[in-house]
Amino acid sequence: EKAVNLKKDLAEMQEWMTQAEEEYLEKDFEYKSPEELENAVEEMKRAKEDVLQKEVRVKILKDNIKMLAAKVPSSGQDLATELNVVLENYQLLCNRIRGKCHTLEEVWSCWIELLQYLDLETAWLNNLEERVQMTENLPEKLDAVSDALESLESVLRHPADNRTQIRELGQTLIDGGILDDIISEKLEAFNARYEELSHLAVSRQIALEQQLQTMRETDHMLQVLQENLVELDRQLTSYLTDRVDAFQLPQEAQ
Questions:
Q1: What's the Cα-to-Cα distance from 28 to each of 24, 45, 117, 136, 145, rounded to whole Å?
Q2: Distance CA 145, CA 172 (A)
Q3: By three-state DSSP, how is residue 227 classified?
Q4: Which parts form a coiled-coil structure per UniProt (predicted)?
Q5: Rounded Cα gap, residues 47 and 97, in angstroms
Q6: Rounded alpha-carbon distances, angstroms, from residue 172 to 167, 203, 226
Q7: Which of 130, 144, 121 is nearest to 200 (CA)?
Q8: How many CB atoms lie within 10 A of CB 110?
Q9: Domain spans, the chain
Q10: Is 3.30.950.10 the CATH number for 1-211?
């Protein structure tokens, strides 16, 4: 009777494993939204816990069959053969579910990481847009233009590492068919805004550099003119002081 019960337990265990395999491993999942992906991750976590909890039951079956084999070798031998099959299938099921759970967790982590990098770069784009707007309607002062140019250049020196991560993470998920429509839409919008703002910022940078150069040249010319006027004033004053007749002076002094 004990052998019959143990045989029944082995059959039930094998049936449960077959159902678990069909439910958790043979489904074709399509992750078209973050909610679907997150639900799949949680489901696989529960599946892993469920399968691992059966380890106690498997151990009890193993111990009982060993005890029976020690007492009734003939009955125990057949059960031991069935047990080995069940143990092998159980270990395989555990490994496969662990593997799928790990894969889904990695995919979810990849998605979250992509969102974080997009948030960082979007914040940078917002800052860049603000700096570009600050370069408009500047007062015609050398310091104001110089400060605006320096401020814009400091933002443009932003490293490209984050954009590289966005491209690689997005491509990895799209290649796996994970959230491909959503990610493609997000990347297209981000890249379009990045190209537009970068082009505008560089154009403003060039314009400010040219404006700054013109202002510096003008300032230099005014300074030279001022120095010449001071020198001319000094010379004329000396001529007047010495009562020199204008017709005795060089043409430019006259």
A1: 10, 17, 30, 55, 60
A2: 44
A3: helix
A4: 3-64, 208-242
A5: 7
A6: 9, 34, 66
A7: 130
A8: 17
A9: 1-211
A10: no
Give residue-wise pLDDT tens across range 85-109.
Answer: 888 999 999 999 999 999 999 999 9
Pull the structure tokens for residue 209: 């550099």
d(CA 177, CA 32): 8
**How far is Cα 235 from Cα 238, in angstroms, rounded to an integer?**
5
SS3 at position 20: helix
Say if residues 110 and 165 touch (Cβ distance below 8 Å): no
Burial (0-12, 13-18, 19+ Cβ within 10 Å), 4: exposed
Long-range pairs of 10-14 with CB within 8 A, sequence gap ≥ 24:
10/61, 10/79, 10/82, 10/83, 10/86, 13/54, 13/57, 13/58, 13/61, 13/86, 13/90, 14/85, 14/86, 14/89
Token digits of residue 81 = 């053969």
Cα–Cα separations (whole angstroms), residue 3 to 12, 66, 195, 213? 14, 11, 74, 97
**Contact call for residues 60 and 209 (beta carbons, < 8 A):** no
Q: Rounded to two decimals, what is the model's pTM?
A: 0.78
pLDDT in tens, 211-233: 999 999 999 999 999 999 999 88
Backbone φ and ψ for 132, nearest 5 degrees, come out as -65, -45
Whether residue 138 contacts residue 148, with contact meaning beta carbons closer than 8 Å, is answered with yes
Alpha-helical (H) ranges within 72-141 are 73-134
Locate tokens 């979810």: which residue? 108
Helices 142-156, 180-241: crossing angle, 10 deg rounding: 150
Which parts of the chain are beta strand (E)? Answer: none
Torsion angle (degrees, nearest 10) of CA 193, 196, 201, 202: 130
Taking the C-alpha atoms of residue 137 and residue 142, their distance in angstroms, rounded to an integer, is 14
